[in-house]
Amino acid sequence: MTRTARRGLLAVTAAALAAIVVAFGLGGVAQAATLFSDDFNDGNASGWSKSGGDWSVVSDGTPAFTQSKTDSELAREFAGQTSWTAYSVQARVKPLAFNGSNRLVALAARSSSATKMYRLALTNANRAELQAVDGSAVTVIGSAALTVSTGTWYTLRIDANGSTISGFVNGNRIASGSNSAHSAGRIGLVTVFASARFDDVVVSSEGSTNPTDPPTGNPTTPPPTGGPTTPPQTGLVGWATQNGGTTGGGSASATTVTSAAALTSAVGASGAAVIRVSGTISCSGMIRVRSNKTILGNSGATISGCGFTVNGDRNVIIRNLSFRGWADDAINVEQSATNIWVDHNSFTDGYDGAVDIKRGSDFVTVSWNRVFGHDKSMLLGHSDDNASQDVGHLRVTYHHNWFDGSGTRHPRVRFGNPVHVYNNYYYNNEYGVASTMDAGVLVEGNYFEGVDEPTLVGYADSDPGDLVQRNNVFVGSGAPQSAGSTGGIPYSYQLDNPNNVKSIVTSGAGAGRINP
Predict the structure, then answer these.
(1) How many other β-carbons are positioned within 10 Å of the β-carbon of residue 479?
(2) Which 8-state DSSP code applies to residue 451?
(3) Residue 17 main-chain phi, psi, to 5 deg
(4) How many CB atoms lie within 10 A of CB 62?
(5) What is the CA radius of gyration of the chain?
(6) Which residue is catalytic, options 409, 414, 470, 513?
(7) Separation of alpha carbons 113 and 428, rounded Å
(8) Which of 295, 395, 508, 513 is the least crowded, having the fewest Cβ atoms under 10 Å away?
(9) The pLDDT of residue 217
(10) Which among 338, 342, 359, 357 has a CA at the least distance from the CA of 243?
(11) Measured torsion, CA atoms of residues 457, 459, 465, 470, in degrees rounded to the nearest 10
């Protein structure tokens, strides 16, 4: 049975019934329904949302979902609905390797954000632990001694019904207790400095207390509500309008490219040019983009496996492209590159930054992009020790971007002042905006939903910066941080009502929303 056919079953088929009998271990299963299942036999993991790690579907007798990086502090994949409440989730889990002591692989339930969940963990201290995770705080609900061997499959199950949370390994209950930290949320697959494989994921409702959402295996961003009161501002706005403006290739005749070789040649040539990308271009490494270029994606245009670098050049526009699976950055702007506009692109499943801007670059606008199924989104300023090149530069505007379950860096800022972050929609992120190393960041009119730390003053080992947050909406999110003041904004812009930002951005951000 294919995953597509199995997903979202409302009636329990014979195969699903057998899975539920195993999951519940009791006779009254007829009241339960299968809400989600994935055996990865179709060879992909669509419907799962990544936050960290290196995930792929590989063969292990049958296809299995694998996280292969043991140096990832937190690697997670999520699926399901954030409003799921009473349910059971079961999966087969095989630890492959542990990197250090007190490492773990786990199954998660009721994940309301990237760092809030219940977790049934197998540790390399030879224990199984049922945990309530809230950011860096981990409460052990219960545990049991268990020999945890790499290369061995274990069947893990979490039952969540009201405040009663129970964990089972290979059908044996290892812990059960009362905990009300998390009332609803998605399922998840987790590794902490470990690699592992996951397979045969089944989610079923608990008895007659069914979730109110329709069964689905699709990405879990809630549908937009409400609507804009004025038309959104979709032309060039922000820092890229300064310093003489950003026009790219201007009125040059367009050239259409369909191969990596043609794309590399066109964007690397001297002189003004408009380049249209058609179809999917598979490539590797970084393709250098020279000055005075406009790169536009035709409908469905995709860059797979590589990224663009703007290194010391100026006046570049990149619009309407889908980037996936890049091995370095998707778009890298560095070495005093200026006047760059990155607009209406989609980014997913890459290695490092979606849009990284660094090393003295300046006058950049990043607008109407969507980042999903990816962790490190947008870095501004690469290093704490690069003040001599960065101070007085790194002026960037981020507006109407959709950070859709992406993990961190939305953006993470060093030195730039003022950096303007307005009218973006943040959904289910570990953190939103971080200001460090004397940066000055204005964060206004954004919509934060399910974000653990919407704004941060200082991050990791970096010294704090200034951050002014005003007129933002916070739904199911932590408390924002703010400090100090920022420089003035020199350009005009239309600030949308923050209550409407969710619907404005989800209906307009990403590739395929414009016809450039």
Answers:
(1) 8
(2) -
(3) -60, -40
(4) 10
(5) 23
(6) 409
(7) 5
(8) 513
(9) 32
(10) 338
(11) -30
Give the sign of the dihedral formed by CA 309, CA 467, CA 367, CA 116: positive
Q: Which two tokens stand for residue 18?
A: 């057998």
What's the rounded Cα separation, in Å, for the pair 36 and 173?
23
Q: Are 33 and 10 in contact (CB under 8 A)?
A: yes
Torsion of CA 212, 214, 215, 218, to 10 degrees: -120
Match 């981990």 to its residue by tokens: 138
Tokens of 77: 């994949």
Predicted pLDDT of residue 237? 96
Q: Which residue type sits at 294?
A: T
Annotation says 314 is catalytic: no
Q: Strand, helix or coil at 496?
A: coil
Q: If you ran DSSP here, which 8-state letter would residue 498 be given?
A: G
CA 429 to the chain's CA centroid: 7
Question: Would the pLDDT of 367 be above 80?
Answer: yes
The residues, any chain, with a CB within 8 Å of residue 335's CB and separated by 6 or more, are 311, 312, 359, 360, 361
Q: How far apart are CA 166 and CA 156, in angstroms?
A: 11
**Residue 170 confidence (pLDDT):** 86
Give me 129's structure tokens: 């632990």
Average pLDDT, the chain: 88
In angstroms, rounded to a whole number, what is the distance separating the alpha carbons of residues 157 and 144?
A: 15
Q: State how far the Cα of 133 lies from the Cα of 231, in Å rounded to an integer.
A: 41
249 class by beta-carbon count within 10 Å (0-12 exposed, 13-18 middle, 19+ buried): buried
For residue 278, is it left (φ>0), alpha (ψ between -120 and 50) or beta? beta
Q: What is the DSSP string of 432-445?
A: EEEEETT-EEEEES
pLDDT tens-digit map of 371-382: 999 988 999 999
Name 172's Cβ contacts closer than 8 Å, sequence gap at least 6.
Answer: none
d(C-alpha 314, C-alpha 311), whole Å: 9
| d(C-alpha 87, C-alpha 447), whole Å | 29
List the 425-427 sheet strands across, edge first.
280-282, 302-304, 322-324, 346-348, 370-372, 402-404, 425-427, 447-449, 473-475
Token code pair at residue 22: 């195993």
Q: From the CB of residue 229, how many other CB atoms can be counted at a distance below 10 Å? A: 10
Report the alpha-carbon distance of residue 187 to residue 2 in Å, rounded.
20
Residue 499: partners with Cβ closer than 8 Å, 6 or more residues away = 226, 447, 473
Residue 390 is given by DSSP the state H
Distance of CA 493 to the CA centre of its chain: 27
Q: What angle do CA 192, 193, 197 make, to 5 degrees?
A: 75
Q: Kindly tell me if the per-residue pLDDT of 113 is higher than 90.
A: no
Total residue count of the chain as it appears in this document: 516
pLDDT tier at 174, thresholds 50, 70, 90? confident
Residue 301 near residue 325 (C-beta atoms within 8 A) = no
**Average of per-residue pLDDT across 152-174:** 90
Contact (Cβ atoms closer than 8 angstroms) between residue 374 and residue 219: no
3-state SS of the chain: helix, strand, coil percent to 5?
10, 45, 45
